[in-house]
Amino acid sequence: MAKFKNRYRIGSARLKHWNYAWNGAYFITICTNKRECFFGDVIDGNMHLSNTGQFAYNFWQEIPDHFPFVTLDVFVVMPNHVHGIIVIDNQNVETLHCVETLHCVETLHCNVSTNKNQFMANISPKPGSVSTIIRSYKSVVTKHTKKILPEFGWQSRFYDHIIRNDGSYERIRQYIIDNPKKWEQDRFYG
Predict the structure, then answer these.
(1) Has residue 5 been placed in a domain?
(2) What is the domain extent for residue 48?
């Protein structure tokens, strides 16, 4: 396990050698801290949002307003987590030069900086990446929710899955759509 400032830290769960700002479809799951049910209740297979659940829903819908290269597909707010598909389609990614659809080369930029600043730049989410989008989303939901529910929080990480083919895309879409109906069998139930 790697150390940062002489403390052990968990390595990245992200796929190595994949730039999460690259065009593609991403399945995202974000859980509340300790999987606390802040967002509402599932009743008869339908999700009934609390005020905090409404924040989570509304701010997800606003993601394309802040990241115009993102389109949203299906999304659901559950009592203690959210699932959604985001699609990055950025025709103007400055750091990428795509020769063909699936053959992209990342261009490195030379910055004059101290080693510490360079280290922080290397481990920080890149502009336009899935991590930046989710960090922004979690931040705005937290800011508004803490005004009415001070104990609210997210888990520090989130789950992502790069969707690579149509069959996987359709299975994930259906999983998200069916999630409220199958809440009692969900691994996040409880």
Answers:
(1) no
(2) 13-182
DSSP β-bridge partners for residue 162: 26
With CA atoms as reference, report the closest residue to 187 among 81, 60, 84.
81
What would the two tokens of residue 68 be? 């115009």
Whether 6 is in a domain gets the answer no
Residue 103 lies in a domain: yes
2 part of a folded domain: no
- Tell the residue number behind the tokens 């025709």, with chain if given: 91
Helix, strand, coil share of the chain (percent; to 5): 35, 25, 40
Burial tier of 5 (Cβ tally within 10 Å: 0-12, 13-18, 19+):
exposed
pLDDT in tens, 159-188: 999 999 999 999 999 999 999 998 887 766
Is 127 within 8 Å of 49 (Cβ atoms)? no
Number of domains in the chain: 1
Residue 6 has phi, psi (to 5 degrees) of 65, 20
pTM of this prediction exceeds 0.70: yes
Neighbours of 179 (CB within 10 A): 22
